[in-house]
Every structure is written in structure tokens, then in C-alpha cells.
């Protein structure tokens, strides 16, 4: 009997010595494992909760590729559904959150269009994953005296266009909670025939002096469902016109990608027009 017990102990010990380092060390550090288990998002939640006497920010941006709402849901769960903590999600490849001016940045590892506008904060040393905590400082874009608001409460506040590079920058502010179509949580991949894409996009078009379409670039690189009144952001559109053509004006506005229906301004227009020399 004792021999059987000893053999069992030896067997369990041998298996543990062989497998525990892989299970608790090598396996959790693999990139795909961390991605599937949202490990970096868990790190952010741990950072926010780590010190009750030195509270972390409760209003902040956080970067992601916005392929769907699952990262948003993962962070909400990791934060114990605390309504006092209000993250705003955005894609750093094209957008920068201006207000709130603190963000968890640096993940995923993609080109950050506004990296020069971010200053890492000392608290980043306490983050163990791929994110760092940064403060954002970006100069305002040229603007008209009065913002132009759309009926869903998103307002355009400024623009800058570089004809040489074709980069159009637009700045936006939420005047109130955005009026958005229902956004149900859909599995990924979605069931056959079920739309799981965005319900709000910005369209941007370059036209010539005869208002002929030259090129366009649509997208919204901020998750609008996570915005609160007073939030502001800036994003880029790439409008490289065909060789031999010259853009005379830039047209832009908002629409629903599912239906194609444009969101009107409060004055009833379906787009805003800017001269390309701006």
C-alpha cells in the first residue's frame, strides 16, 4: 500500500515539474493566449483597482482596433461593471481622444498616428501589460466661430487639410449623449445574414471645381457608443486624388453604414463643404 502511495506521489511530482512551468509561465506569455484571454485589458483593470488610496483615472481613453465590441465588454466585466469608471475606445491608427486627455495607449502594436501628442505618465511603471498611461496634448484645428452640430448631437469643431499628403484631419465634440441606432451584442463571427458592423461613419470626399468626385475615405475610428457629453476627438482621412487632378473642395458628414442614410446637420444639410485650400 505504501509503495503505491509513494509511486503516486512520485508520478504527480514528476508531472508537476514537467508541466507547471509551461502552464503558469510559458503558456500565459504567448501572444495569442494573452489576446484570447484579453490579458492586457485585465492588466488595465488591475491597475485601476490596485490602490484605493491613490485612485487611478475614472474617465480615460483606451486604444484598440475596434473590430467589434468584445474588448469593450471584456473591460467592463474586468472593472466589475462599475458605472463610475468610463472608458472611451478608439483606434490609434487614425484617431486621438482629446477629452478626456488621459489614455491607456500603446496596444495593440500598430502605427500610432498621433504618438507625438502623447506624454507617458510616471504611473505607467505600474502597468504590466502592453499599455502605458499617457496624457494627450494636441493643438486645436482651425475652426469656424461656431461648431456645426448634427442631429445625433455630434458636432464638427475644426479641420485641416494637406493637399500634398492628402491627409484631412477633422475634430469632433459630443454636445450630448449621442443618438445612435440600437447596437446589439453580436457573436463574432456573426450568424449568417446578421449585420455586426458600425452604425455611424464619417464620410470624406475630395471634389474638383466642377464638384466631380475624385476620391473618398470613410470611417469612424472612435467607438461612438462610449462617448459622453463634452468628449472630443480628432481623426484622419486619407484623400489621395488621382494624378493630374486638383481638389477644389472637401465634403464630409455623417451616415449610417447599414442603411446608407446620412445624418443631417441641425440646419438640415446632409454634408459640410470646405474649400481645399483651407
Task: Summarize it.
This protein is an alpha+beta fold and 278 residues long.
SSE map:
Blueprint: H1 2-29, H2 31-36, H3 39-49, E1 59-63, H4 70-78, E2 86-90, E3 95-99, E4 102-105, E5 118-120, E6 132-136, E7 148-149, E8 154-162, E9 167-174, E10 201-207, E11 213-216, E12 232-238, E13 249-255, E14 262-263, E15 272-275
Parallel strand pairs: 1-2, 1-4
Antiparallel strand pairs: 3-12, 4-6, 5-6, 7-8, 8-9, 9-12, 10-11, 10-13, 13-14, 13-15
Helix pairs in contact: 3-4
SS elements, strand count: 15
Largest sheet: number of strands, sense, barrel closure: 5 strands, mixed
How much is the radius of gyration in Å?
24 Å
Instruction: Please state roughly what percent of the residues sit in beta strands, choosing from under 5%, 5-15%, 15-25%, 25-35%, 35-45% or over 45%.
Output: 25-35%
Low-confidence stretches: 22-28
* Structural classification: alpha+beta
* Tally of helical runs: 4
Major beta sheet, strand line-up = 2-1-4-6-5
Helix content: 10-25%
Distance between the termini: 89 Å
Can you offer a commentary on this structure?
It is a single chain. With 278 residues, this protein is α+β, with helices and mostly antiparallel strands. The protein is built from four helices and 15 strands. The chain has helices at 2-29, 31-36, 39-49, 70-78, and strands at 59-63, 86-90, 95-99, 102-105, 118-120, 132-136, 148-149, 154-162, 167-174, 201-207, 213-216, 232-238, 249-255, 262-263, 272-275. Strands 2-1-4-6-5 form a five-stranded mixed β-sheet, with no helix packed on it. A five-stranded antiparallel β-sheet has the order 3-12-9-8-7, with no helix packed on it. Strands 10, 11, 13, 14 and 15 form a five-stranded antiparallel β-sheet that branches. β7 and β8 (154-162) form a beta hairpin. The protein is elongated and about 95 Å long.
Amino acid at each position: 500500500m505504501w509503495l503505491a502511495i509513494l509511486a503516486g506521489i512520485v508520478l504527480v511530482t514528476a508531472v508537476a515539474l514537467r508541466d507547471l512551468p509551461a502552464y503558469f509561465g510559458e503558456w500565459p506569455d504567448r501572444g495569442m493566449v494573452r489576446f484570447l484571454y484579453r490579458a492586457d485589458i485585465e492588466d488595465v483593470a488591475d491597475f485601476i483597482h490596485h490602490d484605493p488610496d491613490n485612485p487611478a483615472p475614472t474617465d480615460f481613453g483606451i486604444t484598440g482596433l475596434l473590430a467589434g465590441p468584445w474588448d469593450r465588454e471584456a473591460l467592463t466585466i474586468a472593472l466589475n461593471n462599475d458605472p463610475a469608471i468610463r472608458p472611451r475606445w478608439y483606434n490609434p491608427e487614425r484617431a486621438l481622444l482629446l477629452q478626456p486627455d488621459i489614455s491607456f495607449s500603446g496596444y495593440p502594436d500598430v502605427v500610432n498616428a498621433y504618438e507625438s501628442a502623447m506624454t507617458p505618465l510616471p504611473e505607467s511603471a505600474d502597468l504590466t501589460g502592453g499599455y502605458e498611461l499617457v496624457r494627450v496634448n494636441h493643438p486645436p484645428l482651425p475652426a469656424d466661430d461656431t461648431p456645426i452640430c448634427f442631429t445625433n448631437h455630434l458636432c464638427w469643431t475644426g479641420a485641416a487639410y494637406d493637399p500634398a499628403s492628402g491627409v484631412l484631419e477633422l475634430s469632433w465634440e459630443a454636445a450630448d449623449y449621442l443618438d445612435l441606432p440600437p447596437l446589439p451584442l453580436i457573436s463574432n463571427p456573426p450568424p449568417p445574414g446578421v449585420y455586426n458592423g458600425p452604425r455611424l461613419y464619417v464620410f470624406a470626399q475630395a471634389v474638383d471645381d466642377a464638384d466631380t468626385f475624385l476620391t473618398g475615405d470613410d470611417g469612424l475610428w472612435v467607438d461612438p457608443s462610449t462617448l459622453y457629453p463634452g468628449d472630443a476627438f480628432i481623426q484622419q482621412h486619407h484623400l489621395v486624388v488621382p494624378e493630374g487632378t486638383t481638389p477644389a473642395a472637401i465634403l464630409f458628414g455623417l451616415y449610417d453604414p447599414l442603411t446608407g442614410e446620412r445624418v443631417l446637420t441641425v440646419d438640415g444639410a446632409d454634408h459640410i463643404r470646405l474649400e481645399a485650400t483651407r
